[in-house]
Automatic annotation (TrEMBL), chains A, B:
Keywords: Methyltransferase, S-adenosyl-L-methionine, Transferase. Residues 283-444 form the PRMT5 arginine-N-methyltransferase domain. GO terms for cellular component: cytosol; nucleus. The active site is at residues 415, 424. S-adenosyl-L-methionine binds at residues 309, 318-319, 373, 399-400. The record marks 312 as: Critical for specifying symmetric addition of methyl groups. Residues 30-273 form the PRMT5 TIM barrel domain. This is Protein arginine N-methyltransferase. GO terms for molecular function: protein-arginine N-methyltransferase activity. It holds the Pfam family PRMT5.
Amino acid sequence: MSTQSTPSLGIEFTTIRSVKDALTLASAQKYDFLVIPIIRKQYGTDLLTNYGSKQLAWPAIASRLKGVGESADMSTALVALIRHVVDVDSSNVHIRNKATKLLQEELAAAQYFSVARVIIRIRNGNITNLTRIAASTLNTLYFAYWFVFPTRVQSNSDDGDDDDAELQPWLWWNKIYKLLDYHGKVYPVLELSADVPSEQAQKRWLGEPVRAVILPTKIFTTNAKGFPVLSPAHQLFIIKLIKLKVQFIIKGINPRDSTLFEPYLQYLKHVTRQTEPTNRVLESFTHGYEDRLQVPLQPLADNLESRTYEIFEKDPIKYIQYEKAIYQALIEKYDQKKPVTIMVVGAGRGPLVNRALEAADRAKYNVHIYAVEKNPMAIISLHAQKQEWGNRVTIIHEDMRSWQPVCKADIMVSELLGSFGDNELSPECLDGAQRYLKDDGISIPYSYTSFICPIQSPRIFSELVYNRDANKPYYANFETPFVVYLHNCFFLAETKPLFTFTHPNFSNPIDNSRFGEVEFTIPTTGTMHGFAGFFDAKLYKDISISIEPNTHSKNLISWFPMFFPIREPITLSANSTIKVNFWRCCSSSQVWYEWTVVEPTTLPIHNPTGRSFSIGK
Amino acid sequence: MSTQSTPSLGIEFTTIRSVKDALTLASAQKYDFLVIPIIRKQYGTDLLTNYGSKQLAWPAIASRLKGVGESADMSTALVALIRHVVDVDSSNVHIRNKATKLLQEELAAAQYFSVARVIIRIRNGNITNLTRIAASTLNTLYFAYWFVFPTRVQSNSDDGDDDDAELQPWLWWNKIYKLLDYHGKVYPVLELSADVPSEQAQKRWLGEPVRAVILPTKIFTTNAKGFPVLSPAHQLFIIKLIKLKVQFIIKGINPRDSTLFEPYLQYLKHVTRQTEPTNRVLESFTHGYEDRLQVPLQPLADNLESRTYEIFEKDPIKYIQYEKAIYQALIEKYDQKKPVTIMVVGAGRGPLVNRALEAADRAKYNVHIYAVEKNPMAIISLHAQKQEWGNRVTIIHEDMRSWQPVCKADIMVSELLGSFGDNELSPECLDGAQRYLKDDGISIPYSYTSFICPIQSPRIFSELVYNRDANKPYYANFETPFVVYLHNCFFLAETKPLFTFTHPNFSNPIDNSRFGEVEFTIPTTGTMHGFAGFFDAKLYKDISISIEPNTHSKNLISWFPMFFPIREPITLSANSTIKVNFWRCCSSSQVWYEWTVVEPTTLPIHNPTGRSFSIGK
């Protein structure tokens, strides 16, 4: 099964005679849509000339669409190219007013013909009036705005700063998106040129909700067989864009045959095939979850469903690592002649029990396993396996924190980790269980560390802004950590470690509250919308499982990253410093995180007293 | 009647033997409250020493208050001085944890004894943990936090930057207030030193909700009569602080008599008398309205009440200016021998009709006045005066925009101005009325201009954050311009002009929409919370009325400034630039403003399509 379908493809015509003919041409060559100006150039000129002196008849504006533009299919087959937008930000009030009127009429025409997308080319950062007009239509007109940006500013001189030339268009977009308060009907579209963006610039754009990419025919070269192809560097960038599910627009004419567009489509289909996932396991696990916000599980407070266990048991690497760790611990630490007591605390449906048995069999050790589980439904699943396990396994239906066993464990095995390591209260659970770990007993895992990284993720921010729960305070969404498969985002810096927990913990009293201040230096300009969170857990010695990007265990799929939002996006220039404070707070019944940014600007403390999100003990 | 009552006064003791004796001493000398540490120093030392090894009995913490601290009066008579706060931000986790526990116990003790205010001295900017602990109590404990700041950092060397030494404490406060999201139970308290703050530093602090001022006895000198007095510069600053209704705290001992505090109280009473308002008219009009947010009147869409007219008719200067303008227009522009037609459009209860008659009498001109008014209730008031006016006045009950008169006006007099000039739709009304102004007729006023200025006003911002209407979207408060008598605020720059309207307006078509981009340079560090708005109106030639601070007409009391909020406070360093965009937008039935900031950061467009606030035509 291929999860990567062919992108939607369009052709842009800057001037056309007949809309009908153009549509026929495009659809004959298997293109999905057409980008055309919906008003005749003449109409704009007339209006600008006669502004104020007479009113033109409205229908004149879009007479070219009469007949063709009135069928229901038009909404998908046409993308309206909006002309005359530059002058709405003229410093001359008369030019500005005329241009505003014209733009408003163009948009009204697009609406009348049920166009679903309009394209507006942005050529500089002088865009506040244009953006205000867009803002005024967002809740009344139905189409989406596709703002087109070059990948670099055309500089007249050669002494221009290369980084800056690439940065400017992104700054224009950043300004538009902020002015429009991250509205969900607003997207950037990239128009590629012969110069491929630098890696940093690519990453920055890949963090934006890019909806389409315009490929001018002139950036294609011809291969040995006479077909149009792109340079390898272009192709690599395009492969990354395809993963964001962008659409493509071919612009300009085929120099070999002005009406032949199919070779470009063939080429893009060919490139798309190269984006087929190489890792089908990972792909099938993540597909459809890209950037989707999920409230973290609370397996301690809530009993998981069998289905949830089943999903996580499919992890191809996690249990291999546990088996390795148990095996290695057995042979390195224990005498093969003596029985070893292993307690699996939080046994769930039993996968770790199976792995412990396998490890013991492989090492030829005599083990007795206690499977401790509080979830009464999971206990049923455990008992179902009892026949197979025989006397080697004792099933205990108890909360590990209150169970009073008759003997102590040599090895205590648990998997109570959340995306942020401690966020499913592994520390609190294991602290409660270590009473029955022998003095020289070991915990698998014996240590885990959370990691954070500031990220640009406007798509997620937009979702937080617009999908507020009306029954909750306005800040609630921004004070809730989410589990999310981060896809359309840009990592602004290297991840850094935050909180570490080790087991067993012989401190007295044990204090699982934490405070951390972490500083990041941002190598290149971007906008921060929150922090990604990860963990790295040491099972036994250097046998570990990790979702921290630099040490991510291959094929480990059980955990998506965490996302901690911030209430206001912060645009950061290159080499600036972010200073963040994170707290892990504990009360008698709850654990929660609080966080804030204190540099380069100070934000309110997020989630004080766990008011928006906390984890029940 | 004095509107300035004596400030509440307290004495701070850093060490005392008996709370009861101290209270007796303070009240005998007419002080209102006492600032004392509520836990014994020894308790803190014990706790820090024994942390983790044993639990001290809780009551020990505040045993000194037993007996004295349990009466209801204590909540007002005592302010709890919190010790040991520095270590909660130690980088050493053990010290930090101990200090946190101690601080939490101190705060719990303050709560137990119903203390209404706690004082915490801030000595550097390393305060995130302290602030987090405060945040965690704000919604459960009842007392207010008074954070005490020096007016300048004590620098060890002489080469320190003077501005910076004054700026640092304010930055600490700014950080605390932002971290606590402008909570209404959090205040700054200033501790004065021998050095009086510079004028900029004074202004910045006067823009904060300063709740109290601590005066160490050592900054007083002794006057010829042997009484303690402050330097003239200190005194001037204190007079400004008294206007913010601060409380005063005397700290330290009287060098002449360690138990005698009354002379300080006498001195402060003496200074307070100097703050008595010199302008009783203005004072009586503004008293009680300081920083109170009012939704602007909409006299066009709503009919005003008689009471509202009555208040505004009390203005001691507005009508004098109108009379002057009409008089001057008559004698300069018209022939004394011919009758002059004056139309008062929007006549209300008739004050401008009276002034026009007085001007004509004084100039000895023969005038006929049409009093045009749409409000049916105001018409009753007009008719009540008809007998007195006789045939010289014709009362017309019509909307000026639709009235069809039989003759045209020489002079059209109106007062349709709002705090922002055009915000009560004077332009739309006068455009509709100018049909019946003679070709060479004049409008009084003939021009008005709105002005804006970025301001720091955390008190107002706090009100907007915490007094949200649960039935409105979360952003509504921040997209509504308010009328407000600005008091506890700091003007970050010079005001600049925005929109101008002139009458009569012979443009065709008339366009009353406007766009303005205004740049401000900020001379000194501050936090912007929004824009103040003003107007300046030209009645006839240079006869004007203005509320713009640089040209404010003396005693003009009818208009308080406008305030345009912004959604996120922006802290600006000295010499930074603010670039703001303002739009006046018009539809067939509504007029509204949209605004945003695009430098140094970009905010969302505020109030798009007038979604949160608009003015009905």
